[in-house]
Amino acid sequence: MTTNLPQISFIIPVRNNLKYLKLCYKSLKNFANNHFIFILDDNSSDGTKLWAENLNDENLSYSIYENTENNSLPLGHTGLYNIGFNLAKEKTEIGVILHADMIISQKFVENLIKHLSHKTIVSATRIEPPIHPVGKEKIIMNFGLYDNEFEEKEFNNFSTILQLENKDKTTHGIFAPWMIFIDDYNKLGGMDLLFRPYPHEDADFFNRAVLNGFDLIQSRDSLCWHFTCKGHKFIEKVGVVHNMFDFYQAKALRNFLRKWGHPPMMNEYSYPLMIRKYNIGMIIIHATSDILIKFEPLFDTIYSDLNLNNLELNNYIESEQKLTSFDLKSKFKSITETKSNEIVCFLDNNKIDINIFQIIMSFKAFIADTINSIELGKLYEYNGISFYKNVINEDHQKYIDQFKPKNNL
Q1: pTM of the predicted model as reported, rounded to 2 decimal places
Q2: What is the CATH number of domain 9-260?
C-alpha cells in the first residue's frame, strides 16, 4: 500500500450474503488495509452481525438497520448508500461504493484515485463469470460462480497481468465499484429513495451526474472480481431468481419511466444515454381503467372521458401510491381540463395500434432531436395517435432540478 494516498471509505451494503462478504473483506485487508470500511446491514439474519462485531478492526464500522415499519420496503442498496456516505464524511473526503460480492485486486485504490478530481466519478473494471451478456465495460473470465469455488490465486495472477497491459488506460462509462468525493455525492442529492430497495438507483444517479457536468471515467487497470447478483437476484443459486426480484425491478422501472420518460439506457461502455424528457400529457377518448393504468408511467398527465371515481382506477392509485413519491391521483384529469403540458398526445382507445408502446417511445426519441426546429402544432401522427407541440420550457436549470431526489417515501 502506498502510504501517501489519502484515506478513503469503502461503503458496502449487505443483506444475508455473509459468505461473499468474508471474501470481500479479506481482499480489502490484503490490498486496502489502511482505509476505512463501512458495512451497512439491511437486517441480515445469517450471522453477519456476530461476525462483524468479532473482527476487532479499528477501521471497520458496522451498522444494522431493522425494518420497524409495517409493510415498508427494505432500505436496499439505495437507502444504505446514503447512510454510508453520511457516516463516511466524518472520516474521509472520498468514498467508494463496493458490493459484498466483489473482490478487489492489488493497486485497486491507487488505480482509481489517480483519475479522481472533483465532479468526476471513477469506476473500476469488473472481471465476471460468463453469466451475463459480454460488454466492453467488463472482462469475461471464470474464477468461480460461488464463494467455495473462488480461485483467489488465479484471479490475482490474472489481475497483475491485466494491470500491466492496461496501465493508465481509461474509457468513459460507469458501474460499481466506483469512487467519488463525498461532497460531490451529496451535491448530486445521493441516491433517490424512489428506487428503494433496488434496482435503477444507480442509473438515475449517473444520469443526474451527466446532467450536472460530471465526467464518468472507467479505470482499466483498477480491477475487481464480481460474482454478480449475489446480493439480490441470484441469492441462493445462479439462474434461480429471488422471489422478490421481479417485483422490485418492475416497481423501479415504473418509477424510472415516470421520472425520466424512458427506460435506463447505456452505450456499449456503460455510459448513460438520455432522451430529453418533456412534460407530456395524453388525451384519450373511449378510455377504460385498464388502458389508463397501463399508460400511467409513460405520461405526466392523462386526460380522459372515464369517470375518475372508477373503482378499478382508484384501487390502482391507492395500492401503487405506496410504491412511488409521484402524486398519482393528480395525474388523472377530466378531458375538459386545461392542457398545460409541453407536448400533448391524442389517442382514441378504439383505434389503438398493437405497437402503441413502441410508437410512444419512438416518438419520445424523435422529438428529443427535432423539437426545436418544429413550430407549435401537430408534430406527428400515426394510425390513430397524434402528438402536438404546446409550449416548451427553455429554463435549463429548472429542467435539471426536476430530477433531484424528493426522498419522501
Answers
A1: 0.91
A2: 3.90.550.10
